[in-house]
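As promised in the previous annual report, we have extended the structural survey to additional targets. Below is the entry for PPM-type phosphatase domain-containing protein.
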Amino acid sequence: MGAGRSAAGPPAGFFAQGLPEALDWRTLMKVVFQPSHEAVLMFTSERERAGSSIPRPRKVVLTLRSCDEAPLPADSLGHVGVVSQKGNKMQPNQDCAFYFHFTDSDGSKIWCACVMDGHGPLGHEMSTLAMQWLPLLVLREPLMASEPGKIVPKNPQSVFDAISAAFQKMGTLMQKASLIGWGPRGYSGATCTLALCARGLLHTANIGDSRMILGTYSTGDEAIEHRILTRDHKPEDPDERLRIEAQGGIVARQRVYLDEWPYVGLNMSRSLGDSKLHAVGVSDVPDVTSIFLGEGGEGGEGGEASPQFLVVASDGVWDYTSAKDAATVVGRHLQMGKGAKVAAETLVLLAQESWEAESPDLDDITAIVVQIGSRCQCPEVQG
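The corresponding structure token record, generated without further manual editing, is:
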């Protein structure tokens, strides 16, 4: 994650002050993790690549690790695929994504996947800021430090409470960032959909309308099953609408409006940032849930890996692609042993084709596919 002014100062100081500045994860990887954690972090950079085999520009995915200084190729983790493709908007690609895994002190394999979708004139800056801060806020949340020596405690209630507390801090930080500088920043923000898997439990947190599904597949041709793990936060939802209108917001045409110029409309009822719209009821409180993955799930105590996968994606996937179709495409590729990266790329292409069949205003499309049950290690350098 791009270096900012804070890279020159102590990370703990900026963390304590909650300054909404860019962080340097190359430095923070060494602060958060020890080499023994075998931590690997993947994240979308500001650089893009394009070519004959890539239909539209895609963000370059960078990979860091705590084991040593050498970087890893983005495709070196076969059980994870991260793709972020630019749409037709004038702004830069406003989506961001990250994935990390590490080995905790008790030998448990912990992993986390997250997608953020920026919106508004400076949405790309807001989503990048969220991507840079959220891993630190979650892993360094004091409630996570309830069991000495462990980054993530065994007690699931402690993890649940820590994620909720980290998102509260993230919301405060993003509000500060949204208030800094010129006017359009107050109308800029980001969604956030996060999954943290530890010791057989999948903890999720969601703000906005990015979405997450959990799929199940087998080695045969049986149907791919799926379950939607998040709910979209939309203004027309009765409870969301009641809160917004009680605070002076206007809900019309499936958007939240201010009753003043420039009459900006936001098509979601919860987001990070968007300080002008938060003043009229838009919220940054996430839905936080925990589900049991069963024996053999990532980080669990069981033996064989469970035939499951997780898809975390921005609304560029979900607006014109059903959860069933997305699960089927990803599940089939994993059944055939093509790996999570190919599955993610195919899903993004499906979403693009579905979008272009309905609308010329192609959105940015970002997807993470995690094949659950794959043993997370600090891989050897390839190439």
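The two ends are 23 Å apart (CA to CA). The chain has one domain: 30-230+288-372. These points will be discussed at the next consortium meeting with the crystallography subgroup.
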